[in-house]
Amino acid sequence: MSNGLQDTASLPTVWLKMNLIFKATGPGLLMAAAAIGASHLVASTRAGAEFGWQLAWVILAVNLLKYPFFAAGARYTAATGESLLHGYLKQGRGYLVLFTLLNSIAAVASTAGVAMLTAAMLTLFVPLPIELLALIVLLSSLLLLILGHYRLLDKVTKVIMLLLTISTLIAAALAFNAPAILPSGFVSPSPWQWVHVGFLVAMMGWMPAPIEVSCWNSLWLLEKQKQQTVTKAQALFDFNLGYVTTAILAVVFLSLGALVMHGSGEHFSPSGAKFADQLITLYSQVLGEQSRYLIGTVALLCIFSTTVTVIDGYSRTLALGWQLLRHDTNTAQSRLLSGIMLLVCLLGLAIILFFKGALLPLLQFVMTLAFMTTIIFAWLNYRLMTAETLPSADRYGVKMRALSWFGMAYLLGFALVFVYWKMGN
User: Fold this and answer.
1) How far is C-alpha 160 from the geometric centre of its chain's CA atoms?
2) How far apart, in whole angstroms, are the C-alpha atoms of residue 380 and residue 225?
């Protein structure tokens, strides 16, 4: 009897702990929202559609090999109370300059990529040119960020992530039970052909996201700590939850492409509007035609949240980098942040107009750029997490160091292969 009473009494304690953990989540889920965009909706689904299950292990391996570099954001900030950018500056002014220069290029290119993808999804509901819809998407994102700031972004993202995860898992489960579409004697093309190097590099570039996203996680964690106390354990739990979620969903999106589209003879169109229609058709084929607009809405909200987090994350790191380099503490941070957001969106729109609605070529360009610069961001984070200035208890141990070196070798090796491939073409 006493044991039963003790178990009942312990329930509120367990519930209270779970509630505290949930409230402490945010930065890691925001990172996941930024990741589950082009890399998942486009690259993972396309990998499954063209090559079946052959690249599933590659997606998991890429997530594992990049883990130490992404984890640096949560670990360093939880240990020091500072952002990664402060850490780069402590390593030397040149490191922060290098980061800021590459980050500026990535900010514009990535904003263009996710904004065009959002506009492509919006064409399912609004019959307007994709360039005009991209402008609407960018203006809406700016309005949400300037008026709502981090608190609103945090709340909205959790709901969207939950809806997307549930709908995608349901679609994948139904796809497993759907009749096989592979024709008799069909042989899947091998992704390990020289001609596919460009696609492999693009897919791995944004899988699960560009490594500079670790800096966003660092700054979002600082914002979260202004609202409530976040312990080291909570910060790491939040990061791991978001990171594992992105890895699992990447394989789930691949499964949709493999089960519903692979072997059908259909290929994704480079046109943004056509691609969006093909993507939603994947869901409606297994969930039923009546679910088309529901899934379209969820996917639109997902990629819109990615656009918002991308603009916010890049702009925050650029604003702080500018202030640290100039030793400027007088400029109003909110005004500087808003100005950088506006500039990034304008330059991103210029790139969208240049590509004229060709979604896949734009995303391929952005993802490839991300892969070619990711080795530098990875090296910066590794230096920081093994630096003598960091308390020994918080530095990377032997296992994380070994995984980091293995990851950097893979990133550098594939980058060299891509350069050779590009020169040959």
Assistant:
1) 14
2) 24
User: Alpha helices, DSSP H only, in 288-358?
Assistant: 292-326, 333-355
Task: Give how many domains the chain has, as a whole number.
Answer: 1
Phi and psi torsions of 97, nearest 5°: -60, -45
| The residue count for the chain | 425
Alpha carbon distance 174, 171 (integer Å): 5
The CATH number for 311's domain is 1.20.1740.10
Q: Is residue 17 assigned to a domain?
A: no
Q: For residue 50, what are the CA distances in angstroms to 120, 138, 248, 249, 275?
A: 21, 31, 20, 18, 14
Domain extent for 212: 33-424
Query: Across residues 125-149, what is the average pLDDT?
Result: 86
pLDDT exceeding 70 applies to what percent of the chain? Answer: 87
The model carries a pTM of: 0.83
Cβ-contact 70, 214 below 8 angstroms: yes
Whether 152 contacts 30, CB under 8 Å:
no
Question: What DSSP element (H or E) covers 361?
Answer: helix 359-385
Confirm if 93 and 325 have CB atoms less than 8 A apart: yes
For residue 205, is it within any domain? Answer: yes
The pLDDT of residue 43 is above 70: yes
